Amino acid sequence: MRDTSSNFRVAREDLARFMQAVLKAAGADQASANAVTRALITASRMGTDSHGLRLLPHYLQALKGGRINGAPDMQFHQRLAATGFLDADDGLGHLAGYTAMEHAMAMAETVGMGAVAVGNSSHFGAAGCYALAAAERGYLAWRSAIRILSCCCMRRQALSRYQPHRLCGAGGGRVALPAGYGDQLGALESRAAVRGDRA
């Protein structure tokens, strides 16, 4: 009897090249293809397959059908020193998520924190990808998806001024901390467990 299981491995670099090629063939520009590839691979590697690689056909179909703008002209509008709005021009949510987090980190670098709301976007996949991207650069980050995507960051130096249990929000949010802040993560997880949320 022949084994028909689909257990096989593909090198991450080969997978990324394939994904970028098919996304571009479906109408995505380079920035969008890079963002989707990064987010889907990150999600699957974190064990969130429901929002990982398995969604590639969905995004390809949405691009080919014109439901998603593959080459958006995203516009950022900074409202105050620490807040802004990103109009994603009906682009892929992954590019919107990473772009919003970049703007949030830039504001956090200047004034200690930054929050960006995103509109006119599409499904952005696993929320943890964007918080993780900021944490890898030394920021406390969280992301929420209540009605609109929002990305928030704090500079590492600002973390000591806040009580971690006050940073946990409810409803579909993801939090990521830079390495070396395990005690703050423990406080967030404890608070979330008591409230029935996930951290």
Notes on the structure:
By secondary structure, this protein is α+β, with helices and mostly antiparallel strands. The chain is built from six helices and six strands; from the N terminus they run αααββαβαβββα. The chain has helices spanning 12-25, 30-45, 56-64, 93-111, 128-135, 182-195, and strands at 75-80, 83-87, 113-119, 140-144, 149-154, 174-176. Strands 1-2-3-5-4-6 form a six-stranded mixed beta sheet. Helix 4 runs parallel beside helix 5 (128-135). It is globular. Mean pLDDT is 79; it is low at 157-171 and 182-199.
Question: What's the topology here?
Answer:
Blueprint lengths: L11 H14 L4 H16 L10 H9 L10 E6 L2 E5 L5 H19 L1 E7 L8 H8 L4 E5 L4 E6 L19 E3 L5 H14 L4
Helix pairs in contact: 1-2, 2-4, 4-5
Cα(first) to Cα(last) distance is 46 Å
What is the overall number of helices? 6
Shape: globular
Q: Which structural class fits the helix and strand makeup?
A: alpha+beta
Strand order of the largest sheet: 1-2-3-5-4-6
Notable traits:
199 residues; alpha+beta; six-stranded mixed β-sheet; 6 helices; 16% strand
Summarize the structure.
The protein has 199 residues and is an alpha+beta fold. The protein contains 6 helices and 6 strands. It is globular, with a radius of gyration of 18 Å.
